[in-house]
Amino acid sequence: MATPHLGSCFRWTSPVRRKGTSHWQFIRNLNSLIGGSLGNRDVDLNLTSKEVTGQNAPVGAALAVQKVQPSGTLAYRFLKRLFDFVFSLCVSVVLVIPVAIVCAFICLESPGNPLYAQERVGKGGKTIKIRKLRSMVADAGNVQKYLSSEQLHQWEVERKVDDDPRITKVGQFIRKCSIDEVPQFLNVLNGDLSVIGPRPITRDELEQHFSDEEKAELLSVQPGITGLWQATDRNAATFESGLRQKIELHYVHNRCFRMDWKCFTGTFGAMFGKKRTGR
Q1: Which pLDDT belongs to residue 140?
Q2: How far is CA 156 from CA 142, 153, 240, in A?
Q3: HEC states along the chain?
Q4: What is the mean pLDDT of the chain?
Q5: pLDDT value of position 49
């Protein structure tokens, strides 16, 4: 399925290509300063399995990512990356002290490293490590120790569990306000994530719940700290029901500044509104 053109949301590609290289070179240079990735103008990117997963990765892990289109128009990609960099830098500076205080409370309730990293699939099938504040007990990885058989099944499918007994009291608070996601702004600064985009998922989730065609579409955009799923149904829309996939792909097909603004403002309602959906 061809990726829809987003010119209806923002159109500015042909002037840059037709009037020499000065404007293009300026944008490329500025983009490199903020760690952006504009792609090769608007041409297809043909990725081999080694380019996607590394020299020693199995061929099956390449995810059949072929002819991945750059995300939207040149202007959209450049301005979105500029916003990501500036906004994330400001958030990181402003919240460094509050996050340090939260880390202290986490360690007081449950000794151990207050931060942890999770492996997820990034743009183009690249494996990335996203950072989060620890909201569970230190040995939460031992799921058999804490979860019932029903909860284990939900964990295997969704990687989230209702009424998870591993979540600490501090963890309940930071999850309700989505404070546990704050360290991911560092992932945005280094270019692994965007502020707005499909939520990064595990490779197992990608293989189990998306067709090859859907994988290529999903991996054609930068995953985000928040997105349409968080701003709308979030916990009610699961992979098992098929709604989660539809929401994430709807964003990919319709991404533009207006869609990003909807996701951005909707996230605050999910975080602080009467019907908070943090889990």
Answers
A1: 86
A2: 13, 5, 11
A3: CCCCCCCCCCCCCHHHHHCCCHHHHHHHHHHHHCCCCCCCCCCCECCCHHHHHCCCCCHHHHCCCCCECCCCCHHHHHHHHHHHHHHHHHHHHHCHHHHHHHHHHHHHHCCCCCEEEEEEECHHHCEEEEEEECCECCCCCCHHHHCCHHHHHHHHHHCCCCCCCCECHHHHHHHHCCHHHHHHHHHHHCCCCEEECCCCECHHHHHHHCCHHHHHHHCCCCCEEECHHHHCCHHHCCCCCCHHHHHHHHHHHHCCHHHHHHHHHHHHHHHHCCCCCCC
A4: 77
A5: 30
Q: Are 188 and 194 in contact (CB under 8 A)?
A: yes
> Is pLDDT of 248 > 90?
yes
Which value, to the nearest 10 degrees, does the dihedral of the CA atoms of residues 178, 179, 182, 183 take?
A: -110
35 pLDDT higher than 70: no
Backbone angles phi, psi at 145, to 5 degrees: -70, -30
Confidence at 269, pLDDT banded by 50, 70, 90: confident
Contacts of 92 (CB under 8 A, 6+ apart): 185, 186, 189
How far is residue 237 from each of residues 91, 113, 199, measured CA to CA in Å? 29, 31, 13
Does pLDDT of 21 surpass 60? no
